[in-house]
Every structure is written in C-alpha cells, then in structure tokens.
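Input/output pair, single chain:
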Amino acid sequence: MYITYDNAFDRELRSISEQHGGFAWFLPEAECEKRIQTVAGELNDSGLFQPPTVVRALWKQTYTPDEYYGFVLTGNAFIQKTEAERQAAYQDIKQLAQHHGGTAERPYLCVLYLAQKR
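Output:
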C-alpha cells in the first residue's frame, strides 16, 4: 500500500498525482488499516478459512527524481499517457524533489494475510 501522511511533501505529491491522472493509489495510514481490516473480515466471513493472521511490514524507499519517475512509469493509468503528459509529470516530480531536499522518500506498507483452510 502507498501510504501518505499529512505533511507538505505528501500533500504536494498527491496534488501532482491527481493533476497528472494518478501515479498510485495513495492512502492515509488510517485508510490502510481500514482496508486491512476489511480484507481480513472478508477472508474470515467467507467461511473458507480460519480467522487470518495479518502481518504488516512498513518500509521506506528514498528515490532520486529520476528513480521516482521510473516508479511512476510502472502505473497502469500512467502508461497510457502521451509523451508530453509524461514529461510534464516528470518536470513536476523533479521540482517537488528539488523543493524538498533533492529526493523523495516514500513509505510502503506490505501486508500478508495468513489463513488456514477450514
């Protein structure tokens, strides 16, 4: 999950992402937890599994502007953009990183659901 926090960098990144059609599905931490609980509940309520064990791993990656743009290029919605649209997003990403120390640090939450079959 692509976590966002209530800070200047994340607000600016979300705004740039929205302006360019969405880089990723950014979620506040509380929304990530809500989604985790929903999935765990659906597994449990299916009647097919024992109540799941949920394992969370929060990690961060620091990117140069070029590296983060490379990540953005992997998004399904972004792949369909024209070269001009991609370049406009790249310029905004570069400017954002330069405005915040030259890099982009992004948090990620990996979630593993372990559930034994009934």
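The first helix runs from residue 8 to 19. The radius of gyration is 17 Å.
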